[in-house]
Write a structure and sequence with these properties.
By secondary structure, this protein is an alpha+beta fold. The protein is about 55% helix and about 15% strand.
């Protein structure tokens, strides 16, 4: 058992999703400082997803299991996104509108975490944004094509939470969903909730 597997399993067995989120934030900070390889983050992410699903596999209701796992991963991503965006924006000027926030998210935030910008940002100028990444880093380890298409959503839950947490800390409450039609390309739909 590797140190990652041991850390993740210990945190999840004890119900320490907050500690695991802190560990992920710390790891991403280390990762983002160019001291670590890209593969480490991808490996950690895959181990967390596998462990969350393995822990829930003992349950009998498979639909409830899937919802619980996706929810757990999304909450972890939310906490990590909040922490990272706070760190990234401490020296930035304030944003003038929602579109500026989304541009920051697509260029600076995304490229700092995934080492590339979002490939396409579309909006209807009414609070709905579609972010398209044609080669999403957390899906590239899975087979290209349609073979693992039904497995893709569990690998996107953390990223949806990451986006939602970042936007939340920037003052925008949102609903984030992900869609995969062909691996490793994915689209994140962000709907800003007007208060």
């Amino acid at each position: 058992m590797s140190i990652f597997q041991w850390s993740v399993s210990r945190c999840l067995r004890k119900g320490c999703s907050f500690f695991l989120s802190f560990f992920l934030s710390f790891f991403l900070s280390f990762f983002l400082s160019d001291m670590a390889d890209d593969a480490l983050f991808e490996f950690l992410h895959m181990e967390i997803v596998a462990h969350v699903y393995k822990e829930q596999a003992t349950r009998e209701d498979i639909d409830k299991e899937r919802v619980t796992c996706v929810s757990t991963l999304e909450v972890m991503g939310f906490r990590v996104g909040q922490g990272l965006v706070e760190r990234f924006t401490k020296d930035c000027p304030t944003f003038k509108d929602d579109l500026d926030v989304m541009k920051f998210l697509c260029k600076d935030f995304w490229s700092t975490i995934f080492k590339k910008q979002i490939d396409n940002l579309r909006t209807n100028h009414q609070g709905t944004y579609v972010l398209q990444d044609n080669k999403f880093a957390l899906l590239t380890q899975l087979s290209s094509g349609k073979q693992y298409l039904e497995e893709a959503p569990k690998y996107l839950a953390f990223s949806c939470g990451l986006i939602r947490g970042a936007l939340s800390n920037l003052g925008l409450e949102s609903v984030v969903t992900a869609e995969v039609s062909l691996m490793p390309s994915c689209k994140f739909q962000v709907v800003i909730q007007k208060l």
